[in-house]
Design brief:
eight-stranded mixed β-barrel, alpha/beta, 277 residues, binds calcium ion, globular, EAL domain-containing protein, 11 helices, binds ligand C2E, 47% helix
Length: 277
């Protein structure tokens, strides 16, 4: 925005102009992407650290762009939040992830819990009704759905968010706190939210082996145990990290060590290969 004094225009550099044009292009193309089925949901397994079983997966959006190939969310999520397109995009991801999860359940391939990322911009009075409608349309068991909200959204201690979370819990949908450790949540706030899962941010897992990060991860795990909240480590890439987390009694993990996010076809292949073993 160029509100404020006329002096602001002096700082509108050619690079900024480029950026605006790029955003406008993405905005226009994204409208088309949603209409023309260019969005994809990729799935990354969530693994139980004690049994090694895949018990669920995180749904991660991708954009199969006609010219630029498969685009990661960093190329378009922020823009979609800025333009409001995140509402339509988020609704599409939620419905597709629920449909696919119920399909795998119905086909006897696996009964898994899918977690779907929710942007703060999606959370409003109608959100719970929307989730209910999607569950009804896709026939997915609510217990098979988890919604991931970032720590920054959840720390917004407003009556509205508290009511919405309670209503979601009442339906049977699980709630997890994403990127945990990057914000400033208080123990009391986390207790009040009645969360189901804490997802420890990748930045701490990356640092495992250093005394500081070991201590932080240990502290998060012991806090989660006190609150009786499940704990999942994000971004596990090495066996050393997995072994540390196992001995520290972390419940679950996700990361390249187990698998990168996969297309639905490849994820289904992974599930059937695992079953045959
Ligand atoms: P996130 O929710 O924290 O998702 C985890 C990200 O870490 C994913 O990136 C995943 O591919 C990546 N990752 C998983 N394991 C590893 C690992 O072992 N090492 C490393 N280096 N990275 C790993 P991705 O798919 O690019 O997604 C980035 C972010 O975009 C997500 O971060 C999430 O904030 C957002 N996002 C993705 N899909 C959606 C969506 O459907 N809706 C919304 N609102 N946001 C989404
Ligand atoms: Ca997430
Ligand atoms: Ca995360
Ligand atoms: Ca993140």
């Amino acid at each position: 925005k160029h509100s404020g004094g006329g002096n602001c225009y002096r700082f509108f550099t050619p690079a900024m102009h480029e950026r605006v044009l790029h955003h406008q292009k993405i905005e226009a193309e994204l409208n088309q992407a949603i209409q023309q089925n260019e969005l994809r949901v990729y799935y990354q397994p969530k693994v139980n650290l004690q049994t090694d079983a895949i018990f669920g997966m995180e749904a991660l959006v991708r954009w199969q762009h006609p010219e630029r190939g498969l685009l990661p969310p960093s190329e378009f999520i922020e823009i979609a939040e800025h333009t409001g397109q995140i509402i339509e995009l988020g609704a599409w991801v939620l419905a597709e992830a629920c449909r696919q999860t119920n399909y795998w359940h119905q086909q006897g391939i696996a009964s898994l819990q899918v977690s779907v990322n929710v942007s703060g911009y999606q959370i409003d009075q109608r959100f719970v009704e929307h989730v209910n409608e999607v569950l009804a349309t896709t026939q997915l068991n609510p217990q098979q759905l988890e919604l991931e909200l970032t720590e920054s959204i959840l720390m917004n201690d407003t009556p509205a968010i508290n009511v919405i979370l309670k209503q979601l819990r009442d339906i049977g949908v699980a709630i997890s706190i994403d990127d945990f450790g990057t914000g400033y949540s208080s123990f009391e706030r986390i207790r009040a939210l009645h969360l189901d899962v804490i997802k420890v941010d990748r930045s701490f897992i990356k640092g495992l082996g250093s005394p500081d990060d070991n201590a932080i991860v240990d502290a998060i795990i012991s806090m989660a145990k006190t609150l009786k909240v499940k704990i999942l480590a994000e971004g596990v890439e090495t066996t050393a990290q997995r072994e540390y987390l196992q001995q520290a009694n972390c419940d679950a993990a996700q990361g390249y060590l187990f698998s990168k996010p996969l297309s639905s076809a490849s994820f289904e292949q992974l599930l059937t290969d695992r079953k045959r073993q």
